[in-house]
Amino acid sequence: MSDDASEDDVRRDLPSASIVKAKYRADGAPEFDAADFKEMEARARGPDVLTPQEMAIVLEAKEEGNAKFKAGRVEEACQKYNCALQTYANRPGGTPDQRREKSKLYANRAECLLRLEQWLAAEQAASKAIQLDADNVKAHYRPCARTRGTWRR
């Protein structure tokens, strides 16, 4: 960094998600709360790991999707599962728990797509769920249910 560059120029060059705002005590020492440390720890584990805040967004969207699905609002449920999956973006999820959660979201999405009779999209969603977690029984069942004629609304 050159001496001419201002602090604002440096901040603009850094990805905004990687900056944790420090709070300062009266003596000028930085102070972080527990959420800041969890976010920094997640970022240190790699770019594929979701931060606690991102996981909270995922879980909230999943719960909303589950509630809409139970209420019979399948299209809205599918949208909520899609929102949760968008939080992952292109990241697989850096921990086994995060990969399992992403697999569940894809399996739930597959069920919604089956009910909407979008067969190919349902099969693709189930395949993604299986790639993330081969032990996800629902993900294995959903594409087979339509093929074998056992799927029912």
From TrEMBL:
- This chain's protein is named Peptidyl-prolyl cis-trans isomerase
Which keywords does this chain's UniProt record carry? Isomerase
Q: Which domain of life is it from?
A: Eukaryota
Gene3D superfamilies recorded for this chain?
A: Tetratricopeptide repeat domain
Keyword check for Transmembrane helix: no
Q: Name one GO molecular function term.
A: isomerase activity
InterPro entries, per the entry: TPR-like_helical_dom_sf, TPR_domain_protein, TPR_rpt
